[in-house]
Automatic annotation (TrEMBL):
Keywords: DNA-binding, Transcription, Transcription regulation
GO MF annotation list: DNA binding; DNA-binding transcription factor activity
Entry-linked PANTHER family: TRANSCRIPTIONAL REGULATOR, GNTR FAMILY (PTHR43537), TRANSCRIPTIONAL REGULATORY PROTEIN (PTHR43537:SF49)
Protein's recorded name: Transcriptional regulator, GntR family
Any Pfam family: GntR
Length: 244
């Protein structure tokens, strides 16, 4: 029972701390210590210690040499680099899947996800089931990372996607009412289809190229927000950490 309670408190500590960091409540550069953080969350130090270590692994915190942690600050270049790294890893996953071959079951599963994504689009160009698309998009990218059968590749894709602004769903929240973003999802869906088609055809180079280009949608969306809708930046998880 105590182990269950510890796991529950640990999970709660991770979730609450992550939310406070991504929202900017705990801003970049702020120092965090076990005792004060435990008091903030009203839980014991052990789950807080585990949560701080977990968020350090996720890249949201840095461990200080003299003890304690500090919330990381990110620049625009860091965001671009994080997106690029995810693209490289997902491209590698797609290429290896095409070169090594994929089981019929796995192809049917990711194919079914693509078909479900199609159902998120209506007759009008900007008619999109936004919530449905976001959920299925996460599933698609999870399946893509696992297609080549390499646990190492899957873990590295997950690691590259751990920062909120580098994930496959980066910049999707809070954009449901912006027509330009809704329309861009149709292009992203065509890329989903092209990636799967290249894997089925055993075209490794094409699968990798399309997957890498697909990841850059996040950068395109970020640049659009900065240029056309800067008021939305504060609403996107993680962008509160960007200092320039």
């Amino acid at each position: 029972m105590r182990q269950v309670d510890a796991a529950t408190h640990g999970g709660r500590a991770v979730i609450e701390l992550r939310e406070k960091i991504l929202s900017g409540e705990l801003p970049g550069g702020m120092r965090l210590f076990e005792v004060s953080t435990a008091e903030l969350l009203d839980i014991s130090r052990t789950p807080v210690r585990e949560a701080l270590s977990r968020l350090t692994e996720e890249g949201l915190l840095n461990r200080l040499p003299g003890g304690g942690f500090v919330v990381r600050r990110f620049g625009f270049a860091d965001v671009v680099d994080a997106i690029e790294v995810r693209g490289v890893m997902e491209g590698t996953a797609a290429r290896l899947a095409a070169e090594r071959g994929v089981s019929k079951v796995a192809l049917e599963e990711i194919g079914a996800t693509v078909q479900q994504l199609d159902l998120c689009f209506g007759d009008r160009v900007d008619d999109v089931d936004f919530d449905g698309y976001a959920a299925l998009n996460r599933i698609f990218h999870h399946q893509l990372a696992a297609l080549c059968g390499s646990e190492m590749i899957r873990r590295e894709v997950e690691r590259a996607s751990s920062l909120p602004f580098a994930s496959p769903s980066a910049f999707l929240p809070d954009k449901a009412n912006i027509g330009a973003f809704r329309r861009s999802l149709r292009g992203a869906q065509e890329q989903h289809k092209a990636i799967v088609a290249a894997i089925v055809a055993r075209e490794g180079a094409r699968a990798e190229a399309v997957a890498r280009e697909h990841s850059r949608t996040a950068r395109t969306n970020l640049e659009y927000m900065i240029r056309e809708a800067p008021e939305l930046i504060a609403q996107v998880p993680g962008l509160a950490l960007i200092s320039d």
